[in-house]
Amino acid sequence: MLTMLAIGIFLAIRGFGSDNAAPPSKYERILQNVAEMIRQGHFSPKDVNDDFSRKVYAKYFEGLDPEKNIFLKEDLKSLRRHETRVDDELKGAPVEFFQEVSKIFDKRVEETKKVYEDILSKPFDFAAKETYVVDPKKTDFAATEAERREAIRKKLKYMALERFVDLQEGRDKNKDSVRKTDAQLEAEARDRVRKTMNRIYERNRKTFDEDKRFAVYVNTITNLMDPYTEFFPPVEKRYFEEQLSGTFSGIGASLQYDEGNIKIATLLTGSPAWKSKQVEVGDIITKVGQGKDSAQDIAGYEVEDAVKLIRGKKGTDVTLTLKKKDGSLQRVTLTRDVIQQDEVFARSAVVEQNGSRIGYIYLPEFYISFDDPNGHNSATDVAMEIKKLKEAKVDGIVMDLRSNGGGSLPAVVDMVGLFIEDGPVVQVRGRDGRPMVMRDKDPGVLYDGPLTVMVNEFSASASEIFAAAIQDYGRGVIIGSSSTYGKGTVQRAIGLDPDNFMSNNSELGSLKLTLQKFYRINGGATQLKGVTPDVVIPDQYELLKYRERDNENALPWDEISKANYRSWNGGYDLQTIKNLSNSRVTASPVFQQIKKNTELLAQRNDKEYTLNIEQYRQEQKEIRALAKATDSLIKANQELVINYLPADQERIGQDKNKQERYNAWLKDRSRDIYLDQALRVIDDIRNQQALAKSKKEQQPVKTF
């Protein structure tokens, strides 16, 4: 399919710029290629016409100014001639709209910088009763400069109010310190806000260049098709693949932001930075150079901006200018090497509970190495963890996919195959309407014991495929919030260079294009609805609008024919499991408190905040009381006895930083009330299986 798509796009794009027209610029080529790819390949492309153009026009201003406190209404009116031209630009007309918006944006940014500096030069009156509305759906661009100034004033006042109350509380707790007056603390709060704003403006000045504004423009267009069709400039494409694979080429140092500086936070043992003996924790990176090229000053950068400069292709050089602890400057050239992020890979532990040994596998994402066939693969890694747990003779396994945003489709198919005999895992349908069934072809089952799968509202895509397949087969019990995220679409990154669409190093960048939709083997889409767990447990984020269904551009839910598959006989009754779990949750003061908190916090989530200090203090007091009540109930619960396996202890070895991170992870899980419920479900499954086996053995043998 992709080959035919590439040929079609190449032929279509080759026609652009004919009739002796001027050669298209980089931006025009990107926009035309993106438009043609969407037209020919998107699962459900929208009509690109004047109505679509009007939506892009309005959304682009919001994309550059989401809080609507930079542009004025007159700016939108002044460029109204472009309102119905976006579709023309997509079809080959000169790219002008985003560049004209960019000029106005620069002018308005300088104006608002002076406004915030002036506002922060004077004290705020926190006794006044007024509110600050954050929700962009409830606000509009200001009609006048005075209106805009008022919007900025309220934002800055809220930021200062938060810091002022924190400073007051800190002063009141620390009786031994020099007692500052409220006026001094208010001035300090404004100064902190000023530093934050300076940092934001400085970062935008240095990093939010024309290319990035163009990327916002292109993604305004693509996101109107669906939330996941996305344009990646070359460096962003590399960063995306690094996140998905868990492996990248860099220097092996973690960074942190500290008062406008990028500092070295930790060094990975054996990495280029560690081997150099010249890079130390606490060093400040002031400049980054690519090889012998001129270095780039990174003052004001966020950590993510600096990371993108420091990472690169294996074997290439990066030169850091470091400010050492004694104030001296040192230039260090390091050769990038492959770095593996252990935290993104599967890991396991064993929980001792009620005489049982239950295995626990945590998988943060379905990763796969794009460039290395022998690199990490989530299905292979999970298989290794299962083998280790079987050797430890566990009585059941909990698979934790909470907040797992998905990843590799082949990996999830292989992973389901570890728990079932051969059969369909997921159905995939493209715009041609013909479903394709992706199957586990291995008749073997690596693990056939009791299984629970933990999910939440942030479990998406591949996580939902795994949970849905396990649920449809009846292979295990799904436990979590009322539904998973609801991302049931398939994307593929395609290079934008017309002569090499399949290249991972496209000079124009890449388009992550929605080509297909996922369907469960029972026929229903995971899109929009997600997966409803068998056992639902109250969750603090339950009522917040984070799921796919809360995105106005999300593709709809539908269903296709059911695939042919055989259910798993687990030896237990699912309804009995549900009843037992519901009884525990209903009787649990912790979960009832969480449910109460969730409902109360959802009522407050109207994104309208008080600017009156007494009302603010009262609201914070109520929120803290809710959090404290829950926290005290959780702490009253007995800690889980959870330990990692001997093989992992050997792997961690003498790496102190890795040991600390792993121990902190185990400590966190020992207080995990949701994991505790998943373990109890394993016990319920085992008890039912034992009861069924006992009844079968007690049946009289009949002879004839």
From TrEMBL:
Pfam families: DUF3340 (PF11818), PDZ (PF00595), Peptidase_S41 (PF03572), TSP_NTD (PF17804)
Gene3D superfamilies: 2-enoyl-CoA Hydratase, Chain A, domain 1, 2.30.42.10, 3.30.750.44
Entry keywords, A to Z: Hydrolase, Protease, Serine protease
InterPro entries documented for this protein: ClpP/crotonase-like_dom_sf (IPR029045), PDZ (IPR001478), PDZ_sf (IPR036034), Peptidase_S41A (IPR004447), Tail-specific_protease (IPR005151), Tail_Prtase_C (IPR020992), TSP_N (IPR040573)
Keyword Magnesium attributed: no
Domain PDZ, first and last residues per copy: 237-311
PANTHER family: CARBOXYL-TERMINAL-PROCESSING PEPTIDASE 3, CHLOROPLASTIC, TAIL-SPECIFIC PROTEASE
Family as reported in the entry's similarity comment: Belongs to the peptidase S41A family.
Listed name of the protein: Carboxy terminal-processing peptidase
Organism the protein comes from: Flaviaesturariibacter amylovorans
